Amino acid sequence: MPKVGIVISNYNGWQDTLICLDSLQKQTFTDFEVILIDDASPNDSVAQLQNKLPPNTVFLPQERNVGFAAANNIGMRRALDDGCDFALLLNNDTSVRPDFLEKLLAETPAGAASCPKMLFMDPPDEIWFAGGELDPKTGKVKHLGGHKKDGPEFAEKKQVSFITFCCVLLPRAVIEKVGYLDETLFMYCEDVDYCIRLAQAGVPMWFLPDAVIHHKAGGSAGGMLSVYYITRNTLYLTCKGKSAAYAKLKTILPLLTGAARYALTKLLGRKKGRSYGAFRGAVDFWNGKMGRMKGAN
Questions:
Q1: Where are the domains of the chain?
Q2: What is the separation, in whole angstroms, between the first and last Cα of the chain?
Q3: Which CATH topology does 4-215 take?
Q4: Domain Glycosyltransferase 2-like: where (predicted)?
Q5: What local confidence, expressed as pLDDT, does residue 221 receive?
Q6: pTM score of the predicted model
Q7: What is the β-pairing status of strands 158-160 and 205-215?
Q8: What does 180-207 look like in DSSP terms, one character per residue?
């Protein structure tokens, strides 16, 4: 049985996915399987992928679009069912260095979650993520090193309070202790929620820069949709476990701010964009609408 189950979710991005899969086949550590979930892509992703997959790939096309969190949960459960000691969640718009998995496994402390250094694909020497900081009270996160040139200041292993789930290594024991991703979120902020739960469970999180991947960034969604989900889901996380009255009170300011900005956008004759996403995200949270954004493509 494979030691690591690498979970990748594809949505309309088969070209990126093939690049990612190709880089994984060059790993110096080879005791792994790839669990590839196509999240009901409306384009020809399934047809493009199914005859080009490496032999160590389990392909699980979905009949309906379940979202990033649920798709990764499907893959994590399959990894554990297959006897894997670790699940590695990996974005499809990444390319990994040949020794990435070997170094990540060798340097991850027992019982910890970990992540590699993440550089942009272009420019390839620029930091996308070098560990993160999370304020659990507000749900706000900070990517350390963003857009800085890679160098000695990003070469130190360290514990962090946030790991982006663009790439995260989770031991079986951690998943069994903390559970799976919160599918209520659909996409975005599921890593924020999980890192809060990791901290609450006493699971350390490590940034391990000897392991390196490159990230294209923005391969699944962006613009209005990303603002919508981040606005709505951040409200959900900050109100989680609180009263309905607290949730309403917490939503008033973003609701009014979003409405004002969207009204200005309409007044200027511009198309629906980020301001609409923020407004709609606050409205939907106010109305208790979670999951996939209604009317989204």
A1: 4-215, 224-286
A2: 38
A3: Spore Coat Polysaccharide Biosynthesis Protein SpsA; Chain A (3.90.550)
A4: 6-178
A5: 52
A6: 0.92
A7: antiparallel
A8: ---GGG-SSSHHHHHHHHHHHTT--EEE
